[in-house]
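Write out this protein's structure.
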Amino acid sequence: MDVLCLGESMIVLAPAAAGPLRTAVDLQAGVAGAESNVAAALAGLGADAAWWGRVGDDPFGRRVLDVLTAAGVDCSGVRTDPERPTGVYFKDPGPEGTTVHYYRRGSAASTMGPGHLAGVAAPRVLHLSGITPVLSASCAALVEELLVERALAPALVSFDVNYRPALWPVAEAGPALARLADRADIAFVGLDEAQVLWGAETPDDVRGLLPNAGVLVVKDGGEGVTAFEGAERRYCPAEPVEVVEPVGAGDAFAAGFLYGRLQGASLEASMRLGHRLAAGALQTVGDLAPPPPSETVRAILEDQ
């Protein structure tokens, strides 16, 4: 396959109408997961993309599989746990932003561990994120096996830092995520994350902290993205867009960038495609946005 994504996918519940969770009468359900978002976006572009995590043997787990399969994602390697639930989280909109409440401790996904992908043929790219190692000690060991020990070699390993403050403190997350990102073939990190985790102020500061990442992609919100590969440094401004919902934009960018690289595109073309997918996600309620037209994708990738 082109890309195999591994991590936790959950059910997300949010007020159907504008207002706080505390007073909401109706909730809207969706499927969310950083890694499965990437898989779905890649599948929409035509890539052979898979998400192979673990869900509970419950209606929520079945909904996760239904939604991802409908999006064209290969879920044939997903394991169902009859004793553990599928994770759930709630969004609580407020005047100063949205607060997230997780109910994922002891979830089916948290039981993943070393050997989870044993016997799997190496994909071209294995995509992981910094969310998985904090789910449990066994999940951390799994990420170590796949990213550091390269259990699926010769697959390239893509790693999105994806720092979640609600899951672990900076003092613990900073060193752990820097170590993992620095070992990746392709590493994604937001400049805002890098500032919080490592005190980095510029993309070049981040490169100085992560000198061994093969390709380092530093995202600066609505400003643009800087990518480093060896001695090469390239910057690509973001597309201006009216934001409807910011959730999922980073995952969409990662999918676009990875697709570009799979097609042999340059750093610039890959970043432009990432921006195009991120723009679509920013204008969509929910984590999954429809892909851009194939002719648009082709034009971006051919414009080197």
